[in-house]
């Protein structure tokens, strides 16, 4: 895989990795893992929200009256 970053992004990433005592690769892998986990959680919340609205639609409708 090739990842193209701007010079500013590459420098900021290098500085962050240095501050954390990790390699740039470790920081990038952690960032990708966090991104995936966050979006998976968002999708699960959305799915549960839709299921809840469907389940309680009649009650929610009465509350809105």
From TrEMBL:
The lineage of its organism: Bacteria, Bacillati, Actinomycetota, Actinomycetes, Streptosporangiales. It comes from Sphaerisporangium flaviroseum. SUPFAM superfamilies: Ribbon-helix-helix. It comes from the Bacteria. Residues 2-38 form the Ribbon-helix-helix protein CopG domain. This is Ribbon-helix-helix protein CopG domain-containing protein. It holds the Pfam family RHH_1.
